[in-house]
Amino acid sequence: MAFFKEFLTKQLLKKQLKGVSPEEQEKIMALINRDPDFFKRIGDEIQSEIKKGKGQMEATMHVMKSHRDHLGKLMNDSGFNRNNIK
User: Fold this and answer.
1) CA-based nearest residue to 6, from 32, 43, 38
2) Chain centre to alpha carbon of residue 3
3) Helical (H) or strand (E) element with 52
4) DSSP at 55
5) Which segments of the chain have a pLDDT < 70?
6) Which of 24, 38, 51, 52 is the one with CA 20 to 30 A from 62?
7) pLDDT tens digits for range 59-82
8) How far apart (Å, rounded) are the C-alpha atoms in residues 49 and 60?
9) Distance of alpha carbon 30 from alpha carbon 36, whole angstroms
10) Is residue 72 a contact partner of residue 35, using CB atoms and an 8 Å limit?
11) Gap between the Cα atoms of 14 and 26, Å rounded
12) For residue 59, how many other CB atoms are within 10 A of its CB?
């Protein structure tokens, strides 16, 4: 079951990150797999903000800003270089 869930997540991620190299996509996928519940919560919060009338970008920025400390910790623990994000 976990394999199927990871496969679907990977396919959705590829669709969202069309312009991102496969290597970077793998790094992002590994980051998501470190704490999938955290990223699900972020997605749910973004959807909630959109339902309140915010645009997708505004909702995403608002939610990500409120979780930046935990996201930064995950990125540092994963060796993910934030300076390489385009």
Assistant:
1) 32
2) 19
3) none
4) -
5) 1-3, 5, 81-86
6) 24
7) 999 999 999 999 888 888 877 765
8) 8
9) 10
10) no
11) 10
12) 19
CB 9 within 8 A of CB 39: no
CA angle 4, 12, 46 (to 5 degrees): 115
C-alpha to C-alpha distances, 58 to 30, 49, 73, nearest whole angstrom:
26, 9, 23
Q: Which amino acid is at 81?
A: N
Contact (CB, 8 A) for 35 and 51? no
* Sequence letter at residue 28: I
CA–CA separation, 67 vs 59, rounded Å? 13
Report how far residue 21's alpha carbon sits from residue 1's, in angstroms, rounded to the nearest whole number.
Answer: 27
The candidate with the shortest Cα–Cα distance to 39, out of 14, 60, 11, is 60
CA angle 40, 41, 43 (to 5 degrees): 65
Q: Which residues contact 50 (CB under 8 A, 6 or more apart)?
A: 56, 59
Distance CA 61, CA 63 (A): 6
